[in-house]
Write a structure and sequence with these properties.
It is built from eight helices and no strands. With 109 residues, it is an all-alpha fold.
Length: 109
């Protein structure tokens, strides 16, 4: 999903793969593998670099089209918490593990 979004935005700006990779300072091969869906979990830093060139935020990359259409936006405190977690370098897997542990801990009470 993210790869297709990057590819569409790149094409809308008439950037070649090489041009976007150079402007964003990312490896062309990695960018290509993201666009083709070979790599499916780009880092936040990668999304920030590419997003800066394409004019899109990390949050917009991660937000699905369905979320854009009908869901209420997350309150500012949640958004800031997610940004803080992303900037700290925590992986999605680590964050999910933490949530699962927290749920387990609450159930045991």
């Amino acid at each position: 999903m993210i790869g297709k979004k990057i590819q569409q935005l790149r094409k809308n700006k008439n950037y070649s793969l090489t041009e976007l990779s150079e402007r964003a300072g990312v490896a062309k091969s990695y960018l290509s593998s993201i666009e083709r869906g070979i790599q499916r979990n780009p880092s936040i830093q990668f999304l920030e670099k590419v997003g800066l060139v394409l004019g899109i935020t990390v949050e917009e990359f991660l937000q699905s089209d369905k979320q854009k259409e009908g869901a209420e936006p997350a309150d500012m405190e949640w958004s800031e918490l997610v940004k803080e977690a992303m900037n700290s370098g925590i992986s999605k897997r680590e964050f999910r593990d933490f949530l699962e542990y927290s749920k387990w801990k609450l159930e045991r009470r």
